Amino acid sequence: MAQQRGSTAQCPSYTDPQNLTGVSEFLLLELSDDPELQPVLAGLFLSMYLVTVLGNLLIILAVSSDSHLHTPMYFFLSNLSLADIGFTSTTIPKMIVDMQTHSRVIAYAGCLTQMSFFVLFACVDDMLLSVMAYDRFVAICHPLQYRVIMHPRLCGFLVLLSFFISLLDSQLHSLIVLQLTCFRDVAISNFFCDPSQLLHLSCSDTFINEMVIYFMGAIFGCLPISGILFSYYKIVFSILRVPSSGGKCKAFSTCGSHLAVVCLFYGTGLVGYLSSVVSPSPRKSMVASVMYTVVTPMLNPFIYSLRNRDIQSALCRLHGRIVKSHLLHPFCYMG
């Protein structure tokens, strides 16, 4: 049972004696009520988590170790991979441990921490995708000035700006949740601490808090999407002016992987949001949450590696260096 930091009390506008003040723990929703299915689900999500982490780590290693990939596009890609690792690590390990221990409890401080990092990395993903769209816009629409515009200082500044904007969004969410002092229930209808779920559990007036969150969503969500749409609007018109079909295909191929990741990220996020609004079943909306918190970060390395010859070549060279080092120094690998 979830415990309380204070006593059970009534909220000012409610008479239900079950309204709780000073909650110290919340209960997360399980993916399945079947205890025999829990080990299977735990093994499945552990496998998906390891594939996500290893796949994104390979992208980071390939980009950092290969001088051919020391370009703005791959610099942003390695930072996106790092954000994806943080995004999945915020929720999935906790869910796997809960399945193994048959526990749904998360402490109040742990819930707040998980929510903060979840919003942080989700917003970093969002911002980096828009930065990568701008990079493709400059590369295709202004190829002669690409190196002048996308110099290393600007690239580093854009990544740092994305992080600090995301940190601001995360801290604003935390401040809003910290203002909630009274809850109708401690059961969260998701497998992680979703800020919207915490607002729904509050028994105090959350109208102003919801308006603030919607306003932040409009700023931190709509602006990056608008930037991506504008960039691809310019890219498409620039490509259509290329006379040869081979040139058009080559130009499209440079942004095909990014466009696929954008569609996957925003598509699963939109499905998750609509399912939570339309579907009366919490488990159905939770399946949609799994799609954008687990499946999307796992597929990103495959999309970039399978469709990108530069990444494939870099991974092959990295593998060759590892094998060569192992052959030259075999005793270093012996226990």
From TrEMBL:
GO terms for cellular component: membrane. Keywords: G-protein coupled receptor, Membrane, Olfaction, Receptor, Sensory transduction, Transducer, Transmembrane, Transmembrane helix. The chain crosses the membrane at residues 40-62, 105-129, 150-168, 211-233, 254-274, 286-304. SUPFAM superfamilies: Family A G protein-coupled receptor-like. Its main location: membrane. One of its GO terms (molecular function) is olfactory receptor activity. This is Olfactory receptor family 7 subfamily E member 24. It comes from Papio anubis (Olive baboon). The gene is OR7E24.
